[in-house]
Amino acid sequence: MSKKSEDEYKIGEFFIENNIINRAQLNEALELQTFNKGRLFGEILVTMGYISKEKLVMSLEMYMMTTDSDKIGINEWLDQDEIDIIIKKLEAAKSKSS
User: Fold this and answer.
1) Ranges of each domain in the chain
2) Which tens digits make up the pLDDT trace of 1-11?
3) How far apart are CA 59 and CA 67, in angstroms?
4) Residue 63: how many CA atoms within 13 Å on its side-chain side?
C-alpha cells in the first residue's frame, strides 16, 4: 500500500477499513465530538468502550505508518510512555525502509 496523506485518509476511515471500529461507532463518535470539541476522536472511542487504550495506541501507530504522519495529536491524551513507544517503533520502521 502506498503512503497516503492525512487529508486523503481520515483516521475514522482507516479504523473502519482495518476492522478497528464499525461505521455506526464512527458516526456516533464523530457526533459526540461535535459537541465536545476539546476531545480527541480516539479518546471518545475509548471512553465509549469501543476500543481499549492499548488497541488505540496500536491503531494510531498503524495509521501513522500508513500516512507517514506524526502530527495527529497523540501527545494531548496519551501518557509519555505510550508516546515514546509509538515514536520508537516509527523510527525503527523508517530506518528499516531507508
Assistant:
1) 11-97
2) 445 554 556 88
3) 12
4) 27
